Amino acid sequence: MKKLWTSTKWIFGIAKPFTKYLLIIILAGAGTSLINVLRAVLSKQLVDAATSQQLQIVFQLIVIIAATIITELIVKAIVTLVSSKCNIKISNNIQQQLFSKVMKTKWSEFTRYHSGDVLTRMTSDVDAITNIITSTIPTLVSLTVLLIGSFIAFLFLDPVLGILLIVLSPITVFLSKYFSIKLKKFYLKFQQIESKYRSFINESIQNMVVVKTFCLEQKNISTLNNIQNERTSLTVSKAKVSALANSILISGFWINYFLVFGWGALKLYNNTITFGSLTAMISLIGNIQGPFSGMAMLLPQVVAAIGSTERLQELEGLDIDYSDTRCRELKAAGIVYENVDFSYEKGKPILKNISANIEPGEIAALVGPSGEGKTTFINLLLALLYPDKGKIFIKDNDDRINVSSSTRQLISYVPQGNTLFSGTIRDNLLFGNPEAAEEEIDCAAKAASAYEFIKSNPEGFDKVLGERGVGISEGQAQRIAIARALLRKKPILILDEATSALDAGTEIEVLRAIKNLKPAPTCIIITHRTAALKICDKIFRIRDNNILTQQRRDEEMGNVSYI
Ligand SMILES: Nc1ncnc2c1ncn2[C@@H]1O[C@H](COP(=O)(O)OP(=O)(O)OP(=O)(O)O)[C@@H](O)[C@H]1O
Ligand SMILES: [Mg+2]
């Protein structure tokens, strides 16, 4: 019940800025319902006037009834226009809010979700919420008005029958409530399978090369088939519960129908009602049946929206680590790790009591076996992860700034793996510095040894790359990623195996160019190549959750000493 209350409050919060549009839709819906009731009453008068030979009144009533029909048509057309505008606006609004939340969420929290799952939440769950606001709620209001109006009209025509209907009708609603609880469980499961389905398709397409080279095409097709079967059986089970709930409701309406028809026929036989009253009662019972079957159909939508609300609230509840405060410009940026502990899971430390000191302008290499925690070490500096113990700060002479999301403004980072976007090479380069001038772009490309291969292309910087840089080699993609980071011009530069696909000569060339940059950034380079170490001032070795610092100059003098 508490969940239902929080979901309802959340939905109302979303709808609030669109009150004006929603009021138009709801009032227009309620108005057409009243017109419907009015038409039933008018039809009674028409039949009665016809049976009592009052021709002039008959013509007048025909004109009035025709006018009600035309008014209803016009109002419905206006509602369609307003609700589709309102629908897209609400959908944009929710997606905008969610997207900005997702962008600003703590990275460590966000990585718990699969991209396909986030996509499902941002599309079908948002659709479910939007529909409930712009369609289901207004329809429920107009059905309620139709129901109440028809009941009142019925009370005037035949009070006993009216009261009987008022007593009988809630029974079906009560029964359907029992099934709504079951339907919600189905809906949540269904959305989970939907996420699994999308995630699987997403990953299969993204990793097409692996699929093809591992000859997994057929296996993937049959996995998809299995997920589809799961989806089908859940849909069938859901449909069974839904059908049962609907049958119970609909049989309730039929009981009402026979009651009215039989009772009315008997009264007509006894001459206690007119033909007109029976006609009105029969069309009014339709107005009572309609809302009930309508509500029965809307029930799954309401249940779905509550499930969707919970899934979207979960995304909304994620911790954000975004800060829009500008980090002040630094002249020099040293990096200090002080007794840092970090573990992804309790009891399984990755880094233990790590201390490291990199002076401004120094180039430090970070080496160590795969899986030892090099990227983790960097992610802590980038405030993508937070230490369990200890401190990390950036120092400008005696001034210390604790790392946080805003200190990312001081860092240019080239992550491990291909991180290019689809678009031109220029778009990719300008990503971190959209204002950069043409000479700056050339300079960064030259420093990253990317200029020549870019220029050897007829389209040059305007060459269009596919998703994740499809269309160029791995080493070329790495050089563009390095140029992109250099163009950002920040006092700290981090290269996480960013030169792994380059030949040894080009790698040294790039590192030398970085060393000669003016002003020289403080660099951390993760590499597995010993040749690259020659360029560095300091070498950090990560081993057994710990770090050892080695001064390069000591090594050159044959004096390998760790601090
Ligand atoms: N999100 C995560 N959750 C749990 N454990 C993780 C996570 N990311 C990494 N790890 C674990 O932390 C350890 C360090 O990973 P990290 O990526 O820092 O290694 P690395 O030294 O950069 O390796 P490589 O040279 O292969 O890139 C690994 O044992 C890895 O399994
Ligand atoms: Mg790594």
TrEMBL record:
Residue ranges annotated for the ABC transmembrane type-1 domain, each copy included: 23-304
Pfam families on file: ABC_membrane, ABC_tran
Domain ABC transporter residues, every copy: 335-563
Keywords tagged on the record: ATP-binding, Membrane, Nucleotide-binding, Transmembrane, Transmembrane helix
Membrane topology type: Multi-pass membrane protein
Name under which the protein is recorded: Putative ABC transporter ATP-binding protein
Compartments where located: Cell membrane
GO terms assigned for molecular function: ABC-type transporter activity; ATP binding; ATP hydrolysis activity; ATPase-coupled lipid transmembrane transporter activity
Main subcellular localisation: membrane
Organism, scientific name: Clostridium oryzae
A GO cellular component entry from the record: plasma membrane
Bilayer-spanning residue ranges: 21-42, 54-75, 129-154, 160-179, 241-262
